[in-house]
What we know:
The protein is of the alpha+beta class. The protein is 22% helix and 44% strand. The strands form 2 sheets. Strands 3, 4, 5, 7, 8, 9 and 11 form a 7-stranded antiparallel β-sheet that branches. A hairpin with a 2-residue loop joins strand 7 and strand 8.
Amino acid sequence: xxxxxxxxxxxxxxxxxxxxxxxxxxxxxxxxxxxxxxxxxxxxxxxxxxxxxxxxxxxxxxxxxxxxxxxxxxxxxxxxxxxxxxxxxxxxxxxxxxxxxxxxxxxxxxxxxxxxxxxxxxxxxxxxxxxxxxxxxxxxxxxxxxxxxxxxxxxxxxxxxxxxxxxxxxxxxxxxxxxxxxxxxxxxxxxxxxxxxxxxxxxxxxxxxxxxxxxxxxxxxxxxxxx
Length: 227
């Protein structure tokens, strides 16, 4: 008996493939446009990031450096009966700009002096003029003078620490410096940047003749700059 062969599936004559409607075509076009837009946006973002990276590599911005190279403390007396600290402190400071392309405008440089974590004086760092422009790859010398009196209420431990420092003739004084600066690249000048520096100093007492009366002389101290 002959085997029965399977018959091929023949679509019925009444099955008609419907043509895409206008709504369907519009949806597909919208999807293509949206996809093209996002691809274009991603390419633009990548291109901008590459440009920024190339400029960063070329310019290589680096933070400025601050050192306190010398300190003279000719008065640092505390009167417990009036809780008054009398002081006279002069600092010599070097500012270095290590950048090969960037110049730095120092618009404001203000220094705070602290003893035992308590601020006792604030002064402006002496610049040749306001908005001092520091050239690239250069080092400049500035100064800061803290002089006067300030009421400071010390507790028993702080008074004891002051007596110990007075006996050693070396006083731990912290200098906190606040900067408002701008960067210059060619003719372009940036907006304002705020920066800070912290200098932890051990300042020996100096007599009226400028001679250190402590066992150790002042050592040049590098400040930590937060740029």
